[in-house]
């Protein structure tokens, strides 16, 4: 299945900070948005997803302009930093949520969820509540829920930050496999060059709400544009 590209040229205001960026993300070539805390990375993702209003600009997925559409009609899947699983729903019903929102019955939605539970190794956990899951298990549920909606675009907001250091490398490799299998336009927010190297083909650096550099990690290392980029690549992050 060939999925469309993502183009976003957006500006939003969060508090006293204006965040402005242009992104072009081809299917199968994930982009990492990297920057210090408070740079506006998560706000940029929220603007693309329709969770915060644009001050100006637009968001297009292929030939379809989506910035005037509500989030549920944009065909964008989001994995949030803390996963935001529904605490009162089982793993099965969390994954089935998208099908329920499309108007399917509970039985139909659960049937839709079954192959995703199987793909992500969640069948044995299907009846558990989120409070009974580890961080890695929660990440898999959140990813399965996002992809069960059959999105054209996948947004990942700091997907490693809620994981213990001991399991982070394993889950990073697992997530990289799933992102490649998805094959659509993917945007990853992170502060970690290790995550960016494992999960993305190119990098956009956001500092104080503004884009300061773009390119591959190798290009950033060869010619860091700002002191932040230089420090980030010199430091051991994980």
Explained architecture:
With about 240 residues, the protein is an alpha/beta fold. The chain folds into two domains: about 5-85 and about 150-235, P-loop containing nucleotide triphosphate hydrolases (Rossmann fold); about 85-130, no CATH class. Helices cover about 35% and strands about 25% of the residues. It has nine helices and ten strands. The strands form two sheets. The protein has a six-stranded mixed beta sheet, sandwiched between helices. Helix 6 links the parallel strand 7 and strand 8. The protein is globular.
Summarize the structure in short.
This protein is an alpha/beta fold.
Portion of residues in helices?
25-40%
Structure class: alpha/beta
Query: What is the CATH-assigned architecture of the largest domain?
Result: 3-Layer(aba) Sandwich
pLDDT averaged over residues: 92
Strand content: 15-25%
Strands across the major sheet, in which order? Answer: 6-7-8-3-9-10
First-last Cα distance: 35 Å
Taking the sheet with the most strands, its summary is:
6 strands, mixed
Low-confidence stretches: none
CATH classification class of the largest domain: Alpha Beta
Examine the coordinates and then state which fold CATH places here, giving the name of the CATH topology of the largest domain.
Rossmann fold
Question: How many individual domains?
Answer: 2
CATH superfamily of the largest domain: P-loop containing nucleotide triphosphate hydrolases
Question: What best-fitting shape do the alpha-carbon axes yield?
Answer: globular
Order of helices and strands: EEEHEEEHHHHEHEHEEHH
